[in-house]
Amino acid sequence: METMAMTKQELQIEEVKNQQDLITFVRFPWEIYKGDRYWVPPLIKDQLLKFSPTHPFRSHSEMILFLAYRGGKIAGRIAGIIDRNYIEFHQEKVGFFGFFESIPDAEVAGTLLSRVTDWLKGHGMEKMAGPINPSTNDECGLLIEGFDSFPCLMMPYNPRTYPSLLEGFGLRKKMDLYALFLEESSFHLDRLNRITERLRKREPRLHVRPIHLRRFDEELKIVKEIYNQAWSKNWGFVPMTDEEINLAAKELKPLVVSDLILFAYWEKEPVGFSVSLPDYNEVLKHLNGKIGLLGALKFLYYSKKIHKIRVMLLGIKHAFQKKGIEGLLYIETFRNGTTKGYHCAECSWILEENVLMQHGIEAMGGKRYKTYRIYETPI
Question: Is pLDDT of 323 > 90?
């Protein structure tokens, strides 16, 4: 009789070297999540773009991709990432691991993480953090609570086994990120309307307007002006380059509903903005990673059935924070959203240390329903 040790096939780790390897890397999640009702397949073309050498993120970063094979069959994947802009901004030699997927096998996960650790250490890094895919301006964090519902647009999802795989390697919590859920039935609109009216009377210089899509390029300049300043003191923040903001805007523009992107003004000065999008994961889960002609028809059909939005960005210039502007943007967003038939919203992600924003959303009727974790270890 063969022993388990004799039957266990040798593990091999290979670097992604060519386009076929990259396609294997991108397609692997379809194996991991087969039969998982809550996984939403990403668009393959969007995933491939993340790894393109022409992507603006690559102008200030280095990235290496590994695949794990056992018995000739893929068993895991991981990326090692060095973001020089992050290192410069935080003055900390920390590298990232990202795009982690693995069968439920500690050897596979540990070996992949070891390869990235060695690569980062060889490039002078002193810590490893993740999962970051591939920067803190993208999807990041590992889902540790809230496995019983679909992820929202541009938010991660993973099996329940992953936290133990990472912690078994020695990774420990660095920061938790929260997603809070609001629904129309529990939204305290009357009370919030009264608060809003008091704010408007107290601060007549303050007003909010929706984005003008016909002047999109001009509106984008306002976003650039506010974004890097408003978020600069947040944990994990890294400034986005103009090229990165331009690409993100180009990708998101077709998804925009004008009344869900708002600008706050103090007299004539733009002082804040919020970006909310319909939860297009309700569409993506029907496309299986491909758009095509049939996918385009499905997109049009299922887009009309979306009833949830994701409040994904909300920022105020430092000098104008704690004046109630954040609350006003939230209230106007949900008022506009319910008018258009969106009955619930996810506010994500919010740092665990940002208690003020959490309390503000909870005061509107929101509840925390998902938690994501960033891990870290010295190397």
Answer: no
